[in-house]
């Protein structure tokens, strides 16, 4: 049994015959929660890609006041990959996509849909359709971007599962690509955040054909806008005067500020909410923590993983 967790949780595994559970939605002032049991889909191919350029912790010692021991003891990170020069995030997404298709034994023409999860696209209007064209999809393949930050790939997977599992669907094969180039938006003078982020892409082909004994067993997802100020990358455009009848109108020339993160608040949120959402996903899949063989945490801090393992009562080795 494999669990992949960010601010939402997915469970993949081999199970008995497909028996969908009803989705549930609960609302409060700032929080939206959604969960579901097994969906009629399964992953059949994966791929990944990273830039060639590496920045080590030792390299960062000449950029900010830090050192390798300090970074590794707090985060578990020794190095990060970053895009440079004319490198594009889209090329990483395409490379990962091709690998996933090769493992799945499919061609790009077999894809009905591409979901591209990113918060840092090369093109503000979206990269999914450009990736579809680059890997050789036909114009029958629908593609769209999905923006959900750290949860993007998981929400993309759930979205794919909904398309693949809905009654009467004509969708058979979906490619989910998750990619980000956060080095473009990091404040390299802020040692608390620049040590955490890098660039890369991952891809997965999901199908509803063939073996129905394995697949996406369930998920749980939460959103809480109350923590908006604790991590963001805000619009910060420059004034742009434009002459208009009767006077001058001040518009805005597009630009975003650097990533801003309040590390302690993010840490407290993650260690509090991750165990909760994991338990909810297990309940949706009618499972317990003892059924889990491996837990993959999407977190940039090894201490968060240690605390989550302790609170769940599972060995850190898992």
Architecture overview:
The protein has helices at about 55-60, 70-75, 90-105, 130-135, 150-165, 190-195, 265-285, 300-310, and strands at about 1-5, 10-15, 25, 30-35, 40-50, 55, 80, 115, 140-145, 175-180, 200-205, 215-225, 230, 240-245, 245-255, 260, 295. The protein has about 325 residues and is of the alpha+beta class. The strands form five sheets. A six-stranded mixed β-sheet has the order 3-4-12-2-1-17. Strands 5-11-10-8-9 form a five-stranded mixed β-sheet. A hairpin with a 3-residue loop joins strand 3 (about 25) and strand 4 (about 30-35). Helix 3 crosses helix 4 (about 130-135) and helix 7 (about 265-285) crosses helix 8 (about 300-310). It is globular and about 60 Å long. The model is unreliable at about 15-30 (pLDDT under 50).
SSE class: alpha+beta
Give the total of beta strands. 17
Strand fraction equals 25-35%
Mean pLDDT: 88
Rg over CA atoms: 21 Å
Helix content: 25-40%
Query: What spatial form do the alpha-carbon principal axes imply?
Result: globular
Low-pLDDT residue intervals, each spanning 5 or more residues? 13-30
Q: Give a short account of the largest sheet.
A: 6 strands, mixed
Distance between the termini: 11 Å
Question: How many alpha or pi helices?
Answer: 8
Task: Describe the strand arrangement of the main beta sheet, using strand numbers.
Answer: 3-4-12-2-1-17
Series of secondary-structure elements, N-terminal to C-terminal? EEEEEEHHEHEHEHEHEEEEEEHEH
């Amino acid at each position: 049994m494999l669990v992949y967790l960010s601010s939402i949780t997915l469970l993949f595994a081999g199970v008995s015959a497909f028996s969908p559970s009803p989705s549930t939605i609960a609302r409060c002032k700032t929080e939206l929660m959604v969960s579901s049991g097994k969906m009629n889909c399964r992953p059949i191919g994966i791929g990944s890609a990273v830039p060639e350029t590496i920045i080590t912790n030792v390299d960062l010692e000449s950029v900010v006041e830090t050192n390798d021991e300090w970074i590794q003891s707090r985060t578990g990170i020794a190095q990060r990959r970053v895009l440079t020069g004319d490198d594009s995030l889209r090329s990483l997404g395409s490379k990962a996509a091709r690998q996933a298709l090769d493992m799945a034994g499919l061609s790009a023409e077999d894809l009905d849909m591409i979901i591209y999860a990113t918060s840092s696209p090369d093109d503000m209007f979206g990269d999914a359709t450009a990736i579809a064209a680059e890997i050789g999809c036909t114009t029958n393949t629908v593609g769209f971007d999905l923006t959900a930050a750290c949860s993007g790939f998981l929400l993309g997977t759930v979205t794919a599962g909904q398309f693949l599992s809905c009654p009467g669907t004509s969708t058979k094969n979906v490619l989910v690509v998750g990619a980000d180039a956060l080095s473009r938006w990091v404040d390299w003078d802020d040692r608390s955040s620049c040590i955490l982020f890098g660039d890369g892409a991952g891809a997965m082909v999901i199908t509803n054909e063939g073996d129905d004994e394995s697949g996406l067993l369930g998920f749980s997802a939460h959103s809480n806008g109350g923590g908006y100020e604790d991590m963001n990358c805000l619009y910060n455009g420059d004034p742009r005067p434009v002459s208009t009848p009767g006077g001058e109108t001040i518009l805005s020339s597009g630009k975003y500020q650097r990533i801003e993160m309040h590390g302690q608040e993010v840490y407290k949120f993650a260690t509090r909410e991750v165990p909760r959402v994991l338990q909810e996903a297990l309940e949706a899949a009618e499972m317990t923590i003892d059924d889990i063989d491996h837990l993959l945490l999407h977190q940039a801090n090894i201490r968060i993983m240690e605390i989550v393992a302790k609170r769940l009562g599972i060995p850190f080795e898992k």
